[in-house]
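Deliverable D4.2, example record:
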Amino acid sequence: MEPFPGDLTLRFGVEMEMLIRPKAPAESPPESVDSLEIFWSRLLKNGWYGNSFGYMDFDDELDRISYTRRWVLRETLAATLTEAGLRTVGAKSGWNAEYKADRDYSARNLVDETLNEVPEGYYRIEIVSRVLDTNADWGEEIAKVFKILTHYCDIHLTPDCSMHIHVSVPNPTGKPPYYTDKQLGQIARALYLFNSAIVDAMPPGRKDNKYARPNPMTGPTRGFTYLGSDLVDEQCKRIRGAYDKAVVGQGSWSTLFALLDGITNQNVEPFLQPSSSPRHSSWNFDNVNNNKGT
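Output generated by the structure prediction step:
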């Protein structure tokens, strides 16, 4: 890829949505019982059977219990991870804390992420990593988080659960464009060239997930007035046609790459993210032309 100014590295954060429940000591291996009993004592101390801490009103008793236990789980897990050398903030000071607006990107955050399907006894959670960068050995850190989580909790996944990554390029100006047109073209080449390999590597139950459809397989977006919907549709069809031929060996990848080299900061969203909702694309380019940075 074209080098970034000053040889800057990519910075990113990993967000993992899941459903969890604390493991029962009585149903766990003997070597885990002591640590699980300590974990449960902390859950109880933090208010597992409490009443939502007095500042939330609920018409439904089950909603009150679920809210309370999600809050307590985040607090208890945050303390447990922090003790293991992984500084983490939970419900009191996390991203969606009821009484703190500031976000701490230098720590891991435990977030109350909405999920539609929640089996009885499980509680929703999103684990947000601290800001990572490509020059650091971050894989071991993520593995350690999961090792601790799976020691204390059972994990259940539904189609709503996912892991996604927010990527930003350190930009001295702090304003778009974050990438040059040439860099976007190179990203586009990689996205299309490795699409089949990425889909093949996904678990069978995730291949057709509506929240992560491969960008090359989605339909063109209408309504981009700065290009004209007909032009967008026609160019998307050309790109898709060239991709379909290249994948089965009936066309040249160079033909597709020539089309992708025409991608710029102005047209990247309709051409690389052509779906009705950007959240339904495997690769989301919403950050290219706004101030989010990720």
